[in-house]
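I have been asked to look over a protein record a colleague put together. Thanks in advance; the entry in question is below.
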Amino acid sequence: MSIPLRWQLSDVVTGEPVTECMEIDGLFADRVFPVEPVHERYTLLDCAPSGPLRAAIDGDGPAWLANVVAAGAHVPGRPIAERCPPDCYDCYRIGEEMLDVRVVGYRPAPGGAGRFDIDLEGHRRDEDHNAGGTVAPDVAGYRLSMWGDGTGAETPLGECRVVDGLFRERPEVWPPGPPVTLRGCRPGLIGHLELHWAHVRVDGTVHRPAWESRIFGKVVATGPSAFGDGLVDVTLDGPVSVPLAANEREIWDVWRAGGPDGPNRWAGLDRSGRYLWVRAAAFHRVPTPDRPAGTVYHLDGRHVTDYDGFFCAIGEAINGPGGWFGGDLFWLHENAATGDGGATPGFTLVWHDSEVARTHLVAGYDRKSWQEAVTFDELVAVLGRDGVRVELR
C-alpha cells in the first residue's frame, strides 16, 4: 500500500477534498509557543489606590500585583463611587486585564486630594475587549482589582480615571506569514483558492482541526516537484490564516508516523513542548468507547514536574501512549465526570510516584498560563469531586 500524502486540502464551502500535498511551506511559523509577551508601561491616571496598590506605593507591601483588572462602568459622567455600590457588577461589564503587573513609579496627580498617577509594567491579555484593546470605552473611570496572587480571591485596588497606554494598536501576536507553497501536490489547482487543511497519518487516517485552518490565495506559479513524478509545487499569493508553531512540527511528525511507540515519549520536553504534546494528542485523537465501569488506571508520575506534564501522564494512563484525557481543568472535569474521554466515570486512578508532583505543583503564579498555579492538591481534589477514586503511591 502506498503512503498517502501528508496534507489533505478541502474546499471551505463544500468541504469536498480538492487535492493532497506532502508539505505546506508557511504552515509552521518561525515562532515558538507560547509567544513570550512584550511587557508594556501603563499609567493609572488620577488614581485613588487601596489595598495592595496603596501598600505598594507606601512601601508597606510588594510592588508586584499579579493580574490587575480595570473594569469600566457603562454610564459615563459621574464619579464611580457615586454611580453604583461596590458590589454592583452589572455596572462593570467592560473589563481589561493586565498580567504580571508591577508598580514601577508614582507621583501626586495634578488634581491633588490624595490621588496619584501610578506607573505599572505588565502586559495585556490578548483576548480582551474593546476592538482588540485599541479603543478606550466611553466610561468615566475604572474600578481596579487584583487576582492571581495565590490567595484564590479577587482583591480591590481602588479606582482611577484613565488607564493610559492600555488602549492602542499593537503588532499582531501571530503576524501574517509568507505566501504559501504546496509542495508535492496533485496537479490541477488554478485560480483563487480558499481551502481547509487536514493532517493525514501514514495509515490514511485524516484529522481535521477544530480551529481556523484556512489557506487562501491565487495560484501564481506551478512547477515540477522534487517529491516525485506527476506531483507539482503550487505557489499562492496568500498565507495560512493561523499558522502552527515551529516547535509543533517534530511533535506532529510522531503522529504522522502512527503515534508514540511507547509511554513517556513526552518526558524530555520542556513545559511548552508538553503543552503542544497534549494539543497534538487532542488533535489526533480517535474516539473509542469508554472502558467498563470499575476499571483501574495507573498513572506513571515520575515525570509529572509541571501542570502540562500531568495531562500528558493522565492521557497515557487512560488511553495509552499519546492518549488524551483533557488539557485543562475544564476538560479534565468533563472527561472524568461525564465520560466520552475513554473511561466510564467512577473509575480508580492509581497515581504512582505522586510525591514528584506534590513537590513541583505548588502554589504560586504560573507564567505560562498567566494565572494562579494549579497545585497537586487541587488536581487531586478535582478528580475526587468528579467521582474518581485516587490512590496516591
The two ends are 46 Å apart (CA to CA). DSSP finds nine helices and 20 strands in the chain. Residues 40-164 form one domain.
